[in-house]
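Priority: low. Protein: Lipoprotein. Input follows.
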Amino acid sequence: MIGLLLLGVVALAVGGCACVVWAERGGPRWARGVAAMTLAAGELVRHSGKNRRRQVNGTTGGDE
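Result:
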């Protein structure tokens, strides 16, 4: 069951990446929308990882 869930997540990620490439080459409007959502999700994951590392290291604020 968990394997199917993981396979679904990987399929969504690959599809999102394909839409990013297709939209960059002038794809249809829906592909540009999916590409924008994929890029936004990537930014959220990146920001979440930075916050998690900051909490583990004990940094509470300031410049990095």
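The mean pLDDT is 87. The two ends are 41 Å apart (CA to CA).
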